Amino acid sequence: MVKTRRRLFVASLLLMLQLGSGFVAHAAESLPAQLSDQEFWKLSSESSEPDGMFRSDNLLSNESFFQWVIPPLNAATKLGRVYMGVGPEQNFTYIAATKPKMVFIVDIRRGNLELQLMYKALFEMSRDRAEFVSKLFSRKRPEGLGPKSTSEEIFTAFSYVQSSEDLYKENLKAVEDHLTKTHGFPLTANDLDGLQYVYNNFFRFGPRINYGSSGSGGFGNGVTYADLMTATDADGMSRSYLANEDNFNFMKSLESKNLLVPVVGNFAGPKAIRAVGKYIKEKEGMVSAFYLSNVEQYLEMDGIWDNFCRNVATLPLDESSTFIRSVRGGRYGNGSGLNSDLGNISTEVKSCPPEK
User: Fold this and answer.
1) Which of 340, 240, 330, 346 lies closest to 287, judged by CA?
2) Has residue 27 got a pLDDT over 50?
């Protein structure tokens, strides 16, 4: 009888442990492993606000020392969560470092959504980094590049190759077909024009494209795409999304599963950030990192930073959720002007003014 009770107790205990571990597994797996094309487009569209304006195209970053913040960022954040960000390709490097399960890129300009869709197609259509760079800049792939090539070797090799107008036209058609036919995204004529505008700039300027190349805004610090991809952290480690095949393949996998979702929205607007937060909460997710660039500077200039703070307060956060900023006087960098810094999101939103 005692043995029977003992066996029943052990069986019950094992069942409880299995149920408990199943609950943990369920919570960890509540974020989607993949989105259908229809789910992706609906989530992007229904979370978005009307197209807004900014003073430049922001086709690429101009943050020379953006990788210096990655070691402390990795120490602060947790893997397998949700990454949020703004702007172009610097997000990819932070994504490769923080290994989120899902990504939302929120930007006031629909042009950034078109840029992100271009990247989506190129990631999905490219087998490796060298093919990706070939397609991005419409240049024939040089001989000798392989999985062990460094980013510096890749960009040095491509610097000797001329852009090809025929390759550009072929690739542009392939990108458009991939998005509208393979995925079935209902891009408008304006979206296709925007996609062509973005891709044409990468064709025109090649790996030497910089923040001011397109002429919109007419400024920039001369940091080129090649410079950004061959930059390192403070210890000389190359951490860009094109530094190695593992980083590239992580991005390719996210894009192929429709798990990087571009959203049009003002950080201080009434809808975008809150809609993203609502979705993440419904999926029992948590924000790991939120890259802000220097957007807060403009929100403060416009007197709407409080609205942004209240929006962020609606996101699912914990003690490890981290802001990544580009600010004057940032702790992580080695130059004048903007350098990177980190902030604890949960702590900072406690000071938000109450909802009106």
Assistant:
1) 346
2) no
